[in-house]
Amino acid sequence: MNSIKVKKPSKVKGIVTFLLIVVIIWASALNTDVSFQKLWDGLPNMGTLLNEMFPPDWSYFKSITEPMLATIRMAVLGTTFGGIVAIPIALLSSSNVVRIPVIYQIARFIMNLIRTIPELLLAALFVPIFGIGEIPGILAISVFSFGIIAKLFYEAIETIDPGPLEAMTAVGANKIQWIFFGVIPQVIAHYASFFLYSFEINIRAAAILGYVGAGGIGLFLNNALGFFQYDRVLSIIIYTFIVVVIVDAISNKIREKLL
């Protein structure tokens, strides 16, 4: 009976990989001037900050309820606008929908380019244009949502079953019918899941966009930090945490039902 010899993986590869990771971490720490000594020296300051934060100003909850609702509204509108715009771009980016490489490569390039810009930078760019308020925040979230949803959605479209599409082509369906009755029914649940996932992220992002003047609870956070009112800072953090946990729980339940 012939026995199959299993070749052991080379230890050299693992050792080289480990050394490479160590060198990268060491070089990063050296160039960013990070050390355990500085972390140790900063611990007393951290203790002082925590001491000033506790107990939180519970009465402040009433004052920040409206800005928190504004933050949620920003996330809702921004995610909706971004999600709508993402649909045609995702279709144009899918090689099984658009068979012309130049078109879907250009669509993917635009999508990838937009996704590289963080939402905080987008908000900082929109504030000088539209002024301090919620509109810059909504626009920043819209662009950010578009990048996420379009990327995930086009990848889902490219994995659909080609059978229904080939059958529709055989009976003479045009491109619009092909998309509405062959593509969309197969990916609509995925799209809803990606939309909710983006909404979860945007709730967290909207909470800090106000820090650069884009409205919402972030404005109050910036003011509280500026006036060293750390008990109010902790109140805002707790309020934001509660909202994010509730939204995440509801969103996860809906996504589980959809997929």
UniProtKB/TrEMBL annotation:
Gene3D superfamilies in the record? MetI-like (1.10.3720.10)
Q: Which residues cross the membrane?
A: 12-30, 70-92, 113-132, 178-197, 203-221, 233-251
Q: Report the main location listed first in the record.
A: membrane
For whether the record's keyword set contains Transmembrane helix, the answer is yes
* UniProtKB keywords: Cell membrane, Membrane, Transmembrane, Transmembrane helix, Transport
Subcellular localization is given as: Cell membrane
Tell me yes or no: is Transferase among this UniProt entry's keywords. no
Q: Name one Pfam family in it.
A: BPD_transp_1
Domain ABC transmembrane type-1: start-end pairs: 68-251
Membrane topology for this entry? Answer: Multi-pass membrane protein
Spell out the family assignment given in the record's similarity comment: Belongs to the binding-protein-dependent transport system permease family.
- The protein here is known as Phosphonate ABC transporter, permease protein PhnE
Species assigned in the record: Heyndrickxia vini
Gene name, Swiss-Prot/TrEMBL: phnE
